[in-house]
Amino acid sequence: MQWYQALLVIKTFRGDGHISIGELADQLMIRDHSAAELVSRLDQAKLVKRKTDPSDRRRSLVIMTSSGGRCLDRLALLHLRELRKIKGAFTSLFQSGGEEF
């Protein structure tokens, strides 16, 4: 689940396709070292790659690979199918104003 969330953030962050480890940590509400470990695992799986920030060589930028994009697309499609299956439950929940909770 954390990989999926990370890939979503990487893909959608500012639209330029680059996010720093610190920015990823902020978006996922995790610590910088946890984000760095997560990026290392995603990198080993070839879903992302690291790039040195040309404006600050101390910073690493995270870029989604084409393989990561395809993986994210497949996961999004699966989630969309599941949401369509339970559409009626969502519709009735929102129409009742969430009073069941």
UniProtKB/TrEMBL annotation:
<dbReference type="InterPro" id="IPR036388">
    <property type="entry name" value="WH-like_DNA-bd_sf"/>
</dbReference>
<feature type="domain" description="HTH marR-type">
    <location>
        <begin position="1"/>
        <end position="101"/>
    </location>
</feature>
<dbReference type="InterPro" id="IPR036390">
    <property type="entry name" value="WH_DNA-bd_sf"/>
</dbReference>
<protein>
    <recommendedName>
        <fullName>HTH marR-type domain-containing protein</fullName>
    </recommendedName>
</protein>
<dbReference type="Pfam" id="PF12802">
    <property type="entry name" value="MarR_2"/>
</dbReference>
<dbReference type="InterPro" id="IPR000835">
    <property type="entry name" value="HTH_MarR-typ"/>
</dbReference>
<dbReference type="InterPro" id="IPR052526">
    <property type="entry name" value="HTH-type_Bedaq_tolerance"/>
</dbReference>
<dbReference type="GO" id="GO:0003700">
    <property type="term" value="F:DNA-binding transcription factor activity"/>
</dbReference>
